[in-house]
């Protein structure tokens, strides 16, 4: 078969950005609670802006922390897009009655080595399971792959949402997606290749933190909530 006879391959590149750190959660699980985030670390957003494509279509969840994160990227010098579509299906897992519980105590109550709040099929009381999250995220990704075929897609979302997308890219293995760390403000790129009768994924970049090369920022990640330890001042 000559090159001219080969079926065309359409590549849609997904650039996932996790929202900035949430500081006002009181150390509690927040899930779909609509809390604000901390976008004060300008060098982080300047670095993220440098690696994102300029002519992309933008999506975010319906929660304010993703909108604030997108706005901080634009404020750092990235050209603001004409529009950003809100997709409720890109929201974090609804953790039901677990929302508002102390995160450290909850995690300590789970089996050692757990990657998530619960087994993927276990729903939070009054909320969702990770599989519920995975299925709704897969649905919106499939739709956007059709609507925006061949485009760069920037999706500002959440840790669980991005882990679900990774599970899809790994051949539909949601449990494998949970093994990845997704830090606040990190960038994950997943490329979707589609040709007649066939589609697959490539994972060129997961949990990239471009600000670590900046001498103004000496932290590898953006710690949030109870991970933030106040500095000890000398007497």
Commentary on this structure:
By secondary structure, this protein is of the alpha/beta class. The protein is built from 6 helices and 6 strands, in the order E-H-E-H-E-H-H-E-H-H-E-E. It has helices at 42-51, 64-75, 103-109, 130-147, 159-169, 174-177; strands at residues 10-18, 57-60, 84-86, 152-157, 187-195, 198-208. Strands 3-2-4-1-5-6 form a 6-stranded mixed beta sheet. Strand 2, helix 2 (64-75) and strand 3 (84-86) form a beta-alpha-beta unit. Helix 1 (42-51) packs across helix 2 and helix 4 crosses helix 5 (159-169). Mean pLDDT is 92; it is low at 229-235.
Quick summary:
It contains six helices and six strands, in the order βαβαβααβααββ. The chain has helices at about 40-50, 65-75, 105-110, 130-145, 160-170, 175, and strands at about 10-20, 55-60, 85, 150-155, 185-195, 200-210. The radius of gyration is 18 Å and the shape is globular.
Task: Present the secondary structure layout.
Layout: E1 10-18, H1 42-51, E2 57-60, H2 64-75, E3 84-86, H3 103-109, H4 130-147, E4 152-157, H5 159-169, H6 174-177, E5 187-195, E6 198-208
Parallel strand pairs: 1-4, 2-3, 2-4
Antiparallel strand pairs: 1-5, 5-6
Helix pairs in contact: 1-2, 4-5
Query: Overall pLDDT, averaged?
Result: 92
The share of residues in extended strands comes to 15-25%
Cα radius of gyration in angstroms: 18 Å
What's the order of the H and E elements?
A: EHEHEHHEHHEE
Helix content class:
25-40%
Strand order within the widest sheet?
3-2-4-1-5-6
Distance between the termini: 77 Å
**Helical stretch count?**
6
Structural class: alpha/beta
**Anisotropy-based shape:** globular
Number of strands: 6
What's the story with the biggest beta sheet?
6 strands, mixed
Low-confidence stretches: 229-235
């Amino acid at each position: 078969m000559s090159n001219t006879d080969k079926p065309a391959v359409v590549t849609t590149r997904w650039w996932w950005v996790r929202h900035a750190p949430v500081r006002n959660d009181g150390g509690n699980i927040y899930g779909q609670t609509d809390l604000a985030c901390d976008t004060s670390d300008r060098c982080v957003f300047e670095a993220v802006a440098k690696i994102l494509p300029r002519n992309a279509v933008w999506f975010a969840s319906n929660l304010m922390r993703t909108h604030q994160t997108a706005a901080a990227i634009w404020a750092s010098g990235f050209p603001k897009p004409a529009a950003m579509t809100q997709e409720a299906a890109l929201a974090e897992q609804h953790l039901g009655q677990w929302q508002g519980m102390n995160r450290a105590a909850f995690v300590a109550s789970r089996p050692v080595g757990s990657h998530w709040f619960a087994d993927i099929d276990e729903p939070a009381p009054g909320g969702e399971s990770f599989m519920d999250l995975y299925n709704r995220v897969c649905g919106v990704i499939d739709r956007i792959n059709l609507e925006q075929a061949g485009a760069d897609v920037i999706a500002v979302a959440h840790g669980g949402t991005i882990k679900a997308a990774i599970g899809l890219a790994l051949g539909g293995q949601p449990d494998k997606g949970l093994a990845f760390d997704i830090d606040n403000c990190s960038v994950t790129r997943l490329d979707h290749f589609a040709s007649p009768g066939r589609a697959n994924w490539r994972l060129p970049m997961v949990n990239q933190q471009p600000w670590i090369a900046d001498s103004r920022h000496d932290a590898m990640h953006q710690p949030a909530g109870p991970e933030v330890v106040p500095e000890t001042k000398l007497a």
